[in-house]
Amino acid sequence: MRSDLTRFVRNTLGAVAAVAVLTPFSAGAEEIVARLSYHWAPAHHSAIYCQKFADRVNERGAGKIRIETYPSGQLFGIREIMGALTSGAVELGGVVGTVSFPPVNKNYNAEGLPGVFQSFDHLRGFFRDDPAGKAVWDNILKRTLTTFVAYNPTGPYMSFSAVRPLDSVEAFQGLKPRYLAGLERPRWEALGASAISLPTREVYTSLQNGMIDTLSTVPSAIKAYSWWEYLKFGQKPYQFFADAFILGNQRWWDGLPDDVKQILLEVGEEISKESTESIMRFSDEVLEEFVKEQGGRVDELSGEELAKLEAIDREKVLPAIKDLIDADVLKAVQDYAAK
Length: 339
Hints:
The chain is α/β, with parallel strands linked by helices. The protein contains 13 helices and 13 strands. It is globular, with a radius of gyration of 20 Å. Keywords: Signal, Transport.
């Protein structure tokens, strides 16, 4: 936890330094200009909806507010955006919960528990309605000096490999996976694979040179970043539902006129609904293209193999993450999921 907080503080300080070289946001006496930074490539589902958010706000808020979008990590990468938002180096950002939130509050690791939540609505209900989950969510926003604007999910997580069909639990033995969130590492180890940490921008080159050959990600990503040039085998069932958000810097938000806030909230609510409703369908379409046009293969574990995977999660992964989630929060998650 201490090292995670250290990294978060370092990223925040780096973002503060970036303020000195970034231009101020004024484009006239009345119009507010804000930047929306996100690491997703333009073809990624979450990038598409970030752009829709900006376009809609710009149309309804013409003359009052204009949002400029910066995709593909042009301003800040996936591991840098939280610090940038906290410092005020950028007004709006696309944030992946499993990456950005655990360094602030380790209990957000609950999102990535394999097989616990059954949908995005189920997941969000824990952080919105359950007292333990809501305390985690409120703590994250307070500590990062951010405000919630919209949900913009990245999709359901599953495993992909360049080496062999993932048609059994044993297929993972000896693979070289990449992990992005810390919660992934215990699972890879339990499956007999040696994982290394890599940011999104380094995945393509690492697949190309053989540094890694496997990763868990959302279907949208294998297309958006052209990873499916190397990844040829996928495995279901989905492990968890990776949520993402459009967040705003709290100080910037507090200084906005009420009518501008209302525009942002109205559009944010629309994007939350549309992005969430379309993400599973979009993921299915990408997997269909992966199989039919890219020559890929997707195996879905069932029967004895699925039971073996679930046993590994229950008997090896959960005990290994005891330092990543407080016991009382883990119990609250399990109780919530059992309802």
